[in-house]
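Q: what does this look like with iron/sulfur cluster bound?
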Amino acid sequence: MEKVFSRPKCMTATPYHYCPGCDHGIVHRLVAESLDELEIADKTIGVAPVGCSVFAYDYFNLDFSAAAHGRAPAVATGIKRTRPESIVFTYQGDGDLAAIGTAEIIHAANRGENITVIFINNAIYGMTGGQMAPTTLVGMKTATSPYGRDAALCGHPIKVCELLSTLESPIYVTRVAVNTSANLMKAKKAVKTAFRLQKEGKGFTFVEVLCICPTNWGKAPADSHQWLAEKMIPVFPLGTYKDKLGVESKA
Ligand code: SF4
């Protein structure tokens, strides 16, 4: 009999260190399932960030490299250019990618590196204790914005998909969420599409996943998913911002 919930081959049995209810584990699984289904796990190299997913390499049966804070796209560029037959991806949170790593992600995207970036946006710094991130919503309370983010003082949330989609080179830029079953299925499809395009040598692919951080949001996981739907998605609308090859209309 076929197992319905067997662990993807390219995941280890290591228990997650993530907080209960965190979405990181779900997104890890989407990555692993996609690599297995595309039969590319044996030639895939991941690049782990600094942040809550710093130990991502413990959870995948893949070759992995660690990068200094924010530099994962630069490290991935080096790996891909020296091993072009490899499938290379970064897995980064919003503090890593949209704050200290802003330059790296923009220039890797602008060069059209044939890599895949999985971007976890939970609107807050997770690992370091819930400080305001570039993606924090206006009015959202964090450890460093106890009265709520003030746009006059700190600007507005950076919308990375919208920003990268203005560049000429990226071929696939999309934003998904994993807060409902329907969104989860769309997220899986997006992650798999991104890796398939890389496998075909098409160019730079970027999948932003809106996620919850129950610990630093101070909410239970179910309430966090509700908050994500009501507050986050209106600011970060789901959808595909760039599909240069029209892959979604052909799907
Ligand atoms: S701090 Fe937030 S993002 Fe980090 S593991 Fe905990 S719930 Fe997940």
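The chain is about 35% helix and 15% strand. The beta strands are 44-48, 63-66, 87-93, 116-121, 172-177, 205-210, 239-243.
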